[in-house]
Description:
Shape: globular
Helix content: over 70%
Number of strands: 0
Structural class: mainly alpha
Amino acid sequence: MVQFVTNGLYRFCEWVMRLAYLNILWVSFSIAGLVVLGIMPATAATFSVTRKWVTGNTDIPIFQTFWKAYKKEFLRINIIGCILSIIAAVFYFDFVILGVFHEQMSIMKLIFMSLLFVYGVIVLFIFPVYAHYNIPLLHTFKYALIIGFSRPLHTLGMAAGALGVTYLILLHVTFIVFFSGSVFCWVVTWFAVKAFHSIDHSYAKRQAI
């Protein structure tokens, strides 16, 4: 019993250190890219590490894995970031316009909220899809959308987990510094990989028939 508790405590501390180290890398490389150019590749690199952890490769060299993904995907992931930022800006200005004409544009509000929901699903899945599949750049958006809506339970779990982690992170500055990016990416990746495996399993069953 004592050995079981000791081993469990050791594993817990080991994962705390891993997540803290990964988060420090995420913050450092985001700043190294002057945030605007650094946060997207740093986030993609963080997802690359958490994907390997979730799929069972827990003993990978964290820095080498992170750095390799950061360098390799710097340009491509920043293109995705630009596309997402432009869409977000369009949504913001639409929101401002709808706020001014809130009485006369109820139908437009419904359309706006529907499109915003679709955008949210894409944002949740875009990084896990990018890290998991070797597909052309623009197909990443299509895959994120299709997977997000074809696996609604995984999507809801991912959204709830992301909101829960965000709430816990905001409770204290220590969580922001050491666990904000890494824990968030790990939770999102866990649900995303479950969705990927579910799709692969369904496809394999159809092929076997």
